[in-house]
Amino acid sequence: MGITEVFLNVISSIVANKISEKIPPINKEESKSINSTIIEENISKNEYYLKAKPLGDGWDSFYKIMPSLLKSIESVNIFLFIEAQPSTFYNLVSIVIEDNRTGDWFPFGQKISFQGNHGGWAMTENFYNCLKKATEDHKDIKMSIRVAKNEDLKGLLEGVITWANFKDKSIPAFITEDMHYKQLRDRFINELVDKKNF
User: Fold this and answer.
1) Burial level of 173, CB count in 10 A (0-12/13-18/19+)?
2) HSE-up of 86 (CA within 13 Å, CB side)?
3) Which CATH architecture has domain 59-193?
4) Which candidate, 112, 101, 98, places its Cα nearest to that of 61?
5) Which regions of the chain does DSSP assign to beta strands (E)?
6) Domain range list for the chain
7) Residue 55, CA atoms < 13 Å, CB-side half-sphere
8) What sign has the CA pseudo-torsion 178, 150, 131, 138?
9) Is-contact 162 107, C-beta < 8 A?
10) Model confidence at 34, in pLDDT bands (50, 70, 90)?
11) Tens digit of pLDDT for each residue in 80-119?
12) How many Cα atoms are found within 13 Å in the side-chain-facing hemisphere of 40?
């Protein structure tokens, strides 16, 4: 090793020592904390992008979003999920439209009700009229009225539970032990479906 190389090594060591004095040391715990924060932020960003989002949350979703969606799907499954426990004065009903060919699902933020005579029931009639119009356009539409736990419905609408997992947790209203759900289903069938020849 020549004198020049020795001199350069000494200078680079002095410079490296001076630079390291200016940088505060990071202990292993701080390093883990920083890395886990970055990882958690990345995971939460990815989860956000992977969550489903309900279509529309106002009455106009039945007039604007639903008709165009129904036109784009050849074979439609309509699922109406009655809340197991009333979240308001009534057991509200959530709507999910499923493309029977692809399995894609489209939850709606706007809820309807099979109870009362005004707001919720009027929304139900508006919803049904949109379906009726779609059947006039020769759509293949099947309907299922089911009961689901409130926390599962919330999870579906917030995108936390996938459609396949959610659907398996619900049960048809017709076979529930509680007559209350059967009565809700029957009102929808008797006052809308049968009268309007769905």
Assistant:
1) buried
2) 11
3) 3-Layer(aba) Sandwich (3.40)
4) 112
5) 75-83, 92-99, 105-107, 112-113, 140-148, 171-172
6) 3-50, 59-193
7) 19
8) negative
9) no
10) very low
11) 999 999 999 999 999 999 998 899 998 988 889 999 988 8
12) 6
Q: Hey, which residues does 142 pair with through a beta bridge?
A: 77
Report the alpha-carbon distance of residue 75 to residue 100 in Å, rounded: 5
Helices (H), ranges, 58-118: 65-72
CA distance 140 to 124: 20
Asked whether 75 and 99 are in contact (CB, 8 A), the reply is: yes
The pTM of the full predicted model, rounded to 2 decimals, is 0.71
Distance CA 148, CA 166 (A): 8
Length of the chain, in residues: 198
Beta bridge partners of 96: 79, 107
The SS3 assignment for 105 reads strand
CA atoms of 24 and 33, how far apart (whole Å): 16
